[in-house]
C-alpha cells in the first residue's frame, strides 16, 4: 500500500491504460478470428486489417489521395458519399509517419490511435484532477479506458487524436490559459467537427465569468482574449466547409456530403437545424412515439446536467457538454454511429466515477467491458449486409 501511494500519477494511469488495452485487444482478436469475408477484409483478418474497416478506409483514401475536386454523383444526380466528410488532421499525421517509417497505412493508423489513446488517458487524469479528488479522477480514467466504445481508441479512426486535443483544450480552458487554445483548437477542429460547439462553450464561459466578475475578477485583457478564442473557434468550425467550397466550387459541398450518409434513411434533403433527431425518431419508432422519445431524451439530459454529481465537475465542463449536445441536436441524424458521436461527452464520466463503493465500481467496470463486446458485435463486426456502421 505504501508503495502504491508513492507511485506517481502518470504510472498509475499508464498501468490502467495498459491493462485496459489487453482486455480490449483480446475481445477484438476473438471477434476478428470469426469475422467472415466482407467489403474490407477476407475471413479471419489480422488485427490491423480488422481495425481499419468501415470509415478507416475513408481515412486511408484521404491519406493516400487527398480530396476530390469534383464531387461524385449518384445515379439520381445527388451528391454521393465521398472523402470530404473526413477531416484531414488524423490522416495527415498518419501519412507523415508512413513517409518517415516506410510502413503501410494499416499498422501506422493503429499506432497513431493507440499513442493518442495513452496521451488522452494521461491528459484526462489531469483534467479530472482539476475538479475531483485524485482517487475519483483515477477511476474516471478507468471508465474512459474500459468504456463500451474504447475499442475505437485503437482502431483506424480519428477519435483518439480528437479526444486528446479536446481534453487538452478543456484543461487549458479550466486553467484559463486562453492564448494556448488557439493552436489546440485549430488541430481539434480539423480532426473532428467541433469548432462550433467549442465556440458556444467558450461564449458561455465568457458570459459566466463576466456575470461573476465581482467575486472572480475578469480583467479586460482576459475578456478580450477569451472572447477572441470563442470567435476563432467559430471560424475554425466553418473552415472545413469553406475549404470544401473552395476546392469543389460548391458552397454546400461539405453539408451535401454529410447528408448523403443519411439518405438511405430519409432520402436526400437539405440540412434543416434541429429537425434530424425528430426525423430519426419517426423513422425508428413511428410518428407518435419517435418525437415523444426525442423530447424525453432532451429533458433527461438537461436534468442530468444539474444533478449533484455532474455539478461537481464545474461550470466549464458542463458548458462543453451542453454545447456539444446542442450541436448534435442541431445537425446529426441518429443511427448506429450515435454512440461514437457521443464520445466527446466523456468528461461526464467524472460524474459516474463519484460513488466510491467497491461493488458499484466493480459493477460499472464489468458493465463497460460487456458493453465493449456488445458494441463490437453490433457495430464493428460485419455480418452479411450490415446496416449498423460504427
UniProtKB/TrEMBL annotation:
| Annotated metabolic or biological route of this protein | Glycolipid biosynthesis; glycosylphosphatidylinositol-anchor biosynthesis
**Keywords for this protein:** Endoplasmic reticulum, Glycosyltransferase, GPI-anchor biosynthesis, Membrane, Transferase, Transmembrane, Transmembrane helix
Membrane topology label: Multi-pass membrane protein
Under the heading PANTHER family, the entry gives:
GPI MANNOSYLTRANSFERASE 2
Domain of life, source organism: Bacteria
Q: Is Iron one of the keywords UniProt gives this record? A: no
Where mainly located? Answer: endoplasmic reticulum
Protein name as annotated: Membrane protein
Cite the source lineage: Bacteria, Bacillati, Actinomycetota, Actinomycetes, Micrococcales
A single Gene Ontology CC annotation of this entry is: mannosyltransferase complex
Chain segments annotated as transmembrane = 12-32, 105-125, 137-158, 178-204, 224-247, 283-307, 319-339, 359-382
Q: Name one GO biological process term.
A: GPI anchor biosynthetic process
Species of origin reads Cryobacterium roopkundense
Provide the GO MF annotations for this entry.
Answer: alpha-1,6-mannosyltransferase activity; GPI mannosyltransferase activity
Q: From the Swiss-Prot or TrEMBL record, state where the protein is found.
A: Endoplasmic reticulum membrane
Amino acid at each position: 500500500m505504501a508503495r502504491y501511494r508513492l507511485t506517481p500519477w502518470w504510472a498509475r494511469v499508464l498501468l490502467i491504460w495498459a491493462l485496459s488495452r489487453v482486455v480490449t485487444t483480446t475481445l477484438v482478436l476473438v471477434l476478428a478470428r470469426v469475422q467472415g469475408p466482407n467489403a474490407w477484409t477476407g475471413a479471419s483478418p489480422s488485427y490491423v486489417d480488422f481495425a481499419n474497416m468501415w470509415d478507416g478506409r475513408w481515412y486511408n483514401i484521404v491519406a493516400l489521395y487527398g480530396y476530390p475536386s469534383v464531387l461524385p454523383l449518384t445515379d439520381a444526380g445527388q451528391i454521393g458519399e465521398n472523402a470530404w466528410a473526413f477531416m484531414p488532421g488524423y490522416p495527415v499525421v498518419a501519412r507523415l509517419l508512413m513517409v518517415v517509417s516506410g510502413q503501410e497505412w494499416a499498422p501506422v493508423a493503429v499506432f497513431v490511435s493507440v499513442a493518442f489513446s495513452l496521451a488522452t488517458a494521461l491528459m484526462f487524469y489531469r483534467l479530472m484532477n482539476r475538479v475531483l479528488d485524485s482517487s475519483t479522477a483515477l477511476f474516471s480514467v478507468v471508465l474512459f479506458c474500459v468504456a463500451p466504445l474504447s475499442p475505437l481508441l485503437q482502431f483506424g479512426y480519428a477519435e483518439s487524436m480528437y479526444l486528446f486535443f479536446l481534453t487538452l483544450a478543456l484543461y487549458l480552458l479550466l486553467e484559463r490559459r486562453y492564448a494556448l487554445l488557439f493552436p489546440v483548437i485549430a488541430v481539434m477542429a480539423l480532426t473532428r467537427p467541433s469548432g462550433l460547439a467549442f465556440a458556444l462553450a467558450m461564449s458561455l464561459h465568457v458570459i459566466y465569468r463576466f456575470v461573476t466578475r465581482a467575486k472572480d475578477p475578469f480583467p479586460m485583457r482576459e475578456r478580450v482574449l477569451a472572447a477572441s478564442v470563442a470567435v476563432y473557434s467559430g471560424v475554425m468550425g466553418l473552415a472545413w466547409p469553406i475549404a470544401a467550397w473552395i476546392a469543389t466550387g460548391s458552397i454546400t459541398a461539405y453539408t451535401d456530403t454529410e447528408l448523403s450518409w443519411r439518405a438511405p434513411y430519409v432520402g436526400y434533403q437539405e440540412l434543416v437545424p434541429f429537425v434530424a433527431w425528430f426525423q430519426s425518431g419517426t423513422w425508428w419508432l413511428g410518428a407518435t412515439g419517435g418525437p415523444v422519445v426525442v423530447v424525453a431524451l432532451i429533458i433527461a439530459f438537461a436534468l442530468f446536467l444539474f444533478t449533484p454529481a455532474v455539478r461537481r465537475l464545474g461550470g466549464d465542463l458542463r458548458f462543453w457538454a451542453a454545447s456539444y449536445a446542442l450541436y448534435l441536436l442541431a445537425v446529426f441524424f441518429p443511427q448506429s454511429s450515435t454512440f461514437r458521436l457521443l464520445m466527446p461527452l466523456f468528461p461526464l464520466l467524472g460524474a459516474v466515477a463519484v460513488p466510491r463503493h467497491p461493488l458499484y465500481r466493480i459493477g460499472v467496470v464489468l458493465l463497460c467491458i460487456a458493453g465493449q463486446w456488445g458494441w463490437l458485435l453490433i457495430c464493428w463486426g460485419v455480418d452479411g449486409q450490415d446496416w449498423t456502421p460504427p
